[in-house]
Every structure is written in structure tokens, then in C-alpha cells.
From TrEMBL:
<keyword id="KW-1133">Transmembrane helix</keyword>
<protein>
    <recommendedName>
        <fullName>DUF1003 domain-containing protein</fullName>
    </recommendedName>
</protein>
<dbReference type="InterPro" id="IPR010406">
    <property type="entry name" value="DUF1003"/>
</dbReference>
<keyword id="KW-0472">Membrane</keyword>
<feature type="transmembrane region" description="Helical">
    <location>
        <begin position="80"/>
        <end position="100"/>
    </location>
</feature>
<feature type="transmembrane region" description="Helical">
    <location>
        <begin position="51"/>
        <end position="68"/>
    </location>
</feature>
<dbReference type="Pfam" id="PF06210">
    <property type="entry name" value="DUF1003"/>
</dbReference>
<keyword id="KW-0812">Transmembrane</keyword>
Length: 171
């Protein structure tokens, strides 16, 4: 707020946008693209053999720790309720991340299919144009005198000249 020089009162300026005031209801902002890229990286890792090996190692160590060590060092007794909670938490985060990565991949696939369809349409149009051009060239070549045609015409003219010369000599 600014103090008006005329009235001396604090008034809101209506010619400028309000700035956001930090408050309890202000949510943190995030970059959806960066979040999507991160989720794809996580989803790709979750789909590897390396993840399965590491997860198996963690579970085996967890179970061995909580069964073989002295009771004072154990933190999750036999029914392994805390292990179940951790695995459920991991699964509850993994599923949406995998779905988000699949949605992003579907969007990319859709764009690629549209581009492929447009490229295919252009190729079909180019092929049809070239087919018309080849047909026009063939049609044009049908009207053009070929070497064989010219040779046959010259031979017939030579025969006619020879016949006229023979006829002129016999007179």
C-alpha cells in the first residue's frame, strides 16, 4: 500500500496487480515437467532387475536382522509388521509414479502417431503425384517419334526415291 500525497491515507493501487501474500493457504509450487521426468526415472528403475535384487537384499537383511540378532537389537519382531508397512508405503508411491510415467509415454506415443500419420499422408500424396507424372511422360513418349520409327520412315523414303529414280531412268 502506498500513502496518498493528497489525502495521506493508505489506499490500494488499482492500476497494478496485487502481489501474492504469503499465508497459510499458499501451496508450494512445482514444475510438472520436472516432476514427470523424475517419476519416469523412478518408474524405469522400478522396472529393472537391479531394483528387484536390491529390494530382495533389503528384505533378507531385514528378516535376518530381526530374527538372528539379540532381542535388544531387533526393531521389528516376527510378524514383521513394520516391514509390511514399509513395503505397502513403497507400493503406494510406486503405483502412481508408474501410472504417471505411462500417461506421459502415451502422450508421446500419440504425438508420434500423429506425426507418422501426417508423414504417411505426405508420402501417399508424393507417390500419387509421381505416378501421375510417370503416366504423363509415358503418354508424351507415345506421341514422340522414336528412333525405330524414324529409321523405318527413312527406309521407306529411300525405297520411294529409289523407285522414282528407277522409273525416271527407264523413261
Amino acid at each position: 500500500m502506498e500513502t496518498s500525497p493528497i489525502t495521506g491515507s493508505n489506499r490500494v493501487r488499482l492500476d497494478q496487480p496485487r502481489t501474492a501474500r504469503p499465508g497459510l493457504l499458499t501451496l508450494p509450487s512445482y514444475d510438472p515437467e520436472a516432476f514427470g521426468v523424475l517419476s519416469e526415472r523412478i518408474a524405469r528403475f522400478l522396472g529393472t532387475g537391479r531394483f528387484i535384487v536390491w529390494m530382495t537384499v533389503v528384505i533378507v537383511v531385514w528378516v535376518l536382522w530381526n530374527t538372528m540378532l539379540p532381542p535388544a537389537a531387533r526393531f521389528d519382531e516376527y510378524p514383521f509388521i513394520f516391514l509390511t508397512l514399509v513395503l505397502s508405503l513403497q507400493a503406494s508411491y510406486a503405483a502412481p509414479l508408474i501410472l504417471l510415467a505411462q500417461n506421459r509415454q502415451d502422450n508421446r506415443d500419440r504425438v508420434n502417431m500423429e506425426q507418422d500419420r501426417a508423414r504417411s499422408d505426405r508420402n501417399i500424396a508424393d507417390t500419387e503425384y509421381l505416378a501421375r507424372e510417370v503416366a504423363a511422360l509415358r503418354h508424351g513418349l507415345g506421341e514422340v517419334a522414336t528412333r525405330d520409327f524414324i529409321r523405318s520412315e527413312l527406309q521407306s523414303l529411300l525405297k520411294e526415291i529409289d523407285e522414282r529414280r528407277d522409273a525416271a531412268e527407264s523413261l
